[in-house]
């Protein structure tokens, strides 16, 4: 017998009537003169084929699959549809090697509607998801009408599996915990999401902890695995270094398997911070003497746009350049780029000479180069051209790679020859003439 009812047992009731053959002593199959006894009934209960289904309670649209994270318990339940109200059998469990927290055992028979796994599951794998696979077998009680927990004469239905994916604890690692950039630059620190590799990470907070920094992205926002912590350029509007602190949170996508930007059911890992120091851009101006106003450098073969600031000195003198700096700790870096027409008409410097000087405080300063005297080779006025570049150097250590560079200016020192007078000799004059 089979029962096509999908949810409950049905019965076949047989009425039994004994009889004798009666006066004609012929078996008339209970008819004719056969003598009928008292009827009684026999009831046969026919169980339907055992059936059960997994119930999607995490809204991921996959009844037989679920993802858990942050040490949570699965929410998938088993609905026994035939026979409704019966227990179900956990006929097998396959557990990933790094998963702990499983409380079900093979042979367990949870009640209809129970969780497939009530335990909190964790995954110690440092890089990937692992799974727990539960084999579920529905069953009915069989001929003895006794629940034998899926054994004995219990009737077993078709097994199916429920797969629980267990995410590991989210982990991410920055390429550096701090860096120094110049105003107008973007941070270069990247974040490598190691668990789960390829997931986004969350920038949960951005705080200016010193200085006056603008331009940073407003939290909360997410960045892709391997990207820099902020795509924007940061600007230091002050006169000293400032620091922006970014709080980074790795996360996995949680039970619904969707990237909710680190919120909702996403599982957040341990936050960490990254500091970005933003140094200001230095600026510097050089003053000219009165003779240098609107003077064109006609004997220097270099494109300087015609007019540059400058100072005049006499042949055989040392020079001084008056400067003004806008912030503390500016290192002036200088270089000789041209001397006269052929780069050899003035002695004391040669093309390519360079050096630096640190001005610890903002304000007015005097740059004297190396302090040597400039000598004209001939008696013709000549120019020596310098490039002057300001660099922000807060630690006072030259050439250590952390200097922010301002705009280079060109400055001319014009060397005038010493005037000479020659007088004609001899001759006689009369008195009072």
- CATH architecture call of the largest domain: Sandwich
The chain-level structural class is mainly beta
Which word captures the global form?
rod-shaped
> What portion of the residues fall into strands of 2 or more residues?
35-45%
> What share of residues is helical?
under 10%
Please explain how this structure is put together.
This protein has no helices and 34 strands. Strands 15, 17, 19, 21, 22 and 23 form a six-stranded mixed β-sheet that branches. Strands 25, 27, 29, 32, 33 and 34 form a six-stranded mixed β-sheet that branches. The radius of gyration is 47 Å and the shape is rod-shaped. It is an all-beta fold and 433 residues long. The protein has strands spanning 10-16, 19-20, 35-36, 40-46, 51-55, 65-68, 77-82, 88-95, 99-100, 122-123, 130-140, 155-156, 160-166, 171-174, 178-182, 191-195, 201-210, 213-214, 221-223, 235-236, 242-252, 267-268, 272-279, 284-286, 310-314, 321-325, 330-339, 346-347, 354-359, 363-367, 375-376, 382-392, 404-405, 409-416. The chain folds into four domains: 10-46, no CATH class; 51-166; 172-279; 284-416, Sandwich (Immunoglobulin-like).
């Amino acid at each position: 017998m089979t029962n096509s009812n999908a949810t409950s047992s049905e019965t076949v009731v047989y009425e039994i009537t004994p009889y004798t053959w009666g006066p004609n002593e012929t078996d008339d199959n209970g008819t004719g003169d056969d003598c009928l006894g008292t009827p009684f009934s026999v009831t046969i209960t026919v169980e339907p084929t055992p059936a059960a289904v997994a119930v999607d309670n995490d809204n991921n649209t996959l009844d037989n699959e679920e993802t858990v994270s942050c040490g949570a318990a699965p929410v998938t339940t088993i609905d026994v549809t035939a026979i409704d109200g019966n227990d179900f059998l956990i006929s097998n469990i396959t557990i990933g090697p790094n998963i702990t927290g499983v409380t079900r055992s093979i042979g367990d028979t949870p009640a209809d509607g129970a969780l497939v796994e009530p335990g909190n599951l964790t995954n110690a794998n440092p890089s990937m998801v692992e799974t727990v696979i539960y084999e579920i077998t529905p069953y009915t009680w069989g001929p003895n009408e006794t629940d034998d927990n899926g054994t004995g004469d219990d009737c077993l239905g078709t097994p199916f599996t429920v797969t629980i994916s267990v995410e590991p604890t989210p982990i991410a690692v920055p390429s550096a915990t701090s860096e120094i950039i110049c105003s107008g630059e973007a941070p270069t620190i990247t974040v490598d999401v190691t668990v789960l590799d390829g997931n986004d990470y969350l920038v949960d907070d951005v705080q200016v902890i010193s200085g006056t920094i603008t331009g940073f992205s407003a939290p909360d926002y997410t960045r892709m695995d391997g990207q820099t912590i902020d795509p924007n350029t940061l600007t230091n509007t002050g006169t000293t270094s400032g620091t922006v602190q970014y709080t980074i949170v790795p996360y996995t996508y949680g039970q619904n398997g969707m990237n909710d930007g680190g919120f909702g059911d996403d599982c957040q890992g341990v936050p960490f911070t990254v500091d970005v120091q933003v140094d200001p851009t230095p600026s510097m101006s050089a003053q000219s003497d009165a003779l240098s106003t609107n003077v064109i450098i006609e004997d220097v073969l270099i494109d300087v746009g015609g007019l540059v600031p400058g100072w005049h000195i006499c042949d055989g003198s040392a020079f001084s350049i008056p400067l003004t700096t806008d912030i503390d700790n500016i290192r002036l870096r200088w270089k000789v780029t041209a001397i006269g027409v052929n780069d050899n008409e003035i002695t004391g410097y040669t093309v390519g000479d360079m050096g630096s000087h640190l001005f610890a405080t903002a304000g007015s300063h005097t740059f004297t180069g190396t302090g040597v005297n400039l000598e004209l080779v001939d008696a013709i006025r000549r120019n020596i051209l310098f490039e002057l570049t300001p660099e922000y150097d807060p630690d006072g250590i030259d050439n250590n790679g952390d200097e922010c560079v301002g705009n280079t200016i060109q400055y001319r020192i014009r060397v005038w020859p010493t005037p000479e007078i020659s007088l004609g000799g001899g001759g006689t004059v009369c008195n009072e003439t």
